[in-house]
Amino acid sequence: MRPPIKLPELSPEAIAELDQLYRTTDDVRLRMRAQIVLLAAEQRMLAPEIARIVRSDEQTVRTWLKRYMAEGVAGLADAPRPGVRPKVTPAYRAQLLEVVRQRPRSLGQPYSLWTLQRLADYLAEQTGIRVSHVTVRVYLKAAGIVLSRPQHKITSPDPEYEVKKRRLKTSATTSSPAQSSTTLMNST
Question: Distance between CA 122 and CA 135 in Å, rounded?
Answer without folding.
Answer: 14
